């Protein structure tokens, strides 16, 4: 009987690519390597043009993005959740898993974390022969929210994405969340909102949160990431 190493699929953030995400998450990746966990980093399917950015970049910085090929994304940005379209991104990841899986878990950062959450919830539907992930690690994650018409001042998942972000109540996937208290791109409250959806559906023992003092980043300090990697190894061994 052949025993294969555990495998995790990594999805980078907006204006990033697989190579950069591998470098940014090197602390986690190196600790996982000691446990013989294979990390598979893939590029998003969207190639961004300058006008696709939600902020201004000068000529030199944009050229640097092109030179390093970080003009990648999973979907085009919009501040209005109902305008987002993730169909191509979800199909891309599902097809990749069909061709290269199975995977024991999935890891996403920012935009990639939003995609990873949806793929986690829908993996049985997207890839029918694929088992549930043992774990899903969402870093600087968020969901697609809009004002809740029934509760003034509160948010809800945008109507078109409510099924995507609905955790399956019988899922055994361990959900891990990392977020920064000083994150201005994706405030910690957005990651906490998503984490709470899973806590309500799966119970707090299956959902773990790890907060760090930094911003929009993948932490690499061992005191932060070692407990995360311990959780990953425990989930993979189950």
From TrEMBL:
<dbReference type="GO" id="GO:0005737">
    <property type="term" value="C:cytoplasm"/>
</dbReference>
<dbReference type="InterPro" id="IPR005645">
    <property type="entry name" value="FSH-like_dom"/>
</dbReference>
<dbReference type="GO" id="GO:0005634">
    <property type="term" value="C:nucleus"/>
</dbReference>
<dbReference type="GO" id="GO:0016787">
    <property type="term" value="F:hydrolase activity"/>
</dbReference>
<dbReference type="InterPro" id="IPR050593">
    <property type="entry name" value="LovG"/>
</dbReference>
<dbReference type="InterPro" id="IPR029058">
    <property type="entry name" value="AB_hydrolase_fold"/>
</dbReference>
<dbReference type="Pfam" id="PF03959">
    <property type="entry name" value="FSH1"/>
</dbReference>
<feature type="domain" description="Serine hydrolase">
    <location>
        <begin position="2"/>
        <end position="227"/>
    </location>
</feature>
<keyword id="KW-0378">Hydrolase</keyword>
<protein>
    <recommendedName>
        <fullName>Serine hydrolase domain-containing protein</fullName>
    </recommendedName>
</protein>
